[in-house]
Write a structure and sequence with these properties.
globular; two-stranded antiparallel sheet; 5 helices; alpha/beta; 5-stranded parallel beta sheet
């Protein structure tokens, strides 16, 4: 059974990462993917949209696939159905990101297995925006 990385590891990942490819980033402002990506961009991350039909999202050029991205990616953030995630992990492996992050409600034992086989950390069923706020911007710092 998959266990997500601990808070210390997640904090380090979020602090040291600069570029996040968002697979399934919708150009529609009411969608969760758009809201999360907007937040990440506002936090200073470079957001690279990956969407098969969009030309541009959040004033960033969109790519149809992960393979088309011409620069290094630190995190591959996934907004796709759970059954589609094993293929996304396969596509992410050649990019050698620091992690693949499956958003809240998205989990796949098969994707986790493929990521583990490639030595790629994977976070499942967690919202990157929520975790960023929780770990890097706590409301009641001690």
């Amino acid at each position: 059974m998959h266990k997500n990385p601990d808070d210390e590891w997640l904090t380090k990942l979020l602090r040291e990462s600069r570029t996040i490819a968002v697979v399934g980033l919708s150009p529609k402002p009411h969608r969760d993917s758009f809201k999360v990506a907007s937040y990440l961009k506002a936090q200073g991350y470079r957001v690279i949209p990956v969407h098969p039909r969009a030309q541009e999202v959040l004033d960033e050029r969109a790519y149809r696939t992960l393979a088309e991205i011409p620069e290094p990616v630190d995190i591959v953030n996934v907004f796709r159905r759970s059954e589609e995630t094993p293929a996304v992990v396969e596509d992410a492996v050649p990019l050698r990101p620091r992690a693949v992050w499956l958003q809240l409600g998205i989990a796949s034992t098969e994707a986790a297995g493929r990521a583990a086989a490639a030595g790629l950390p994977i976070v499942m069923d967690r919202c990157l925006m929520v975790e960023h706020r929780r770990l890097l911007h706590p409301r009641n710092p001690r």
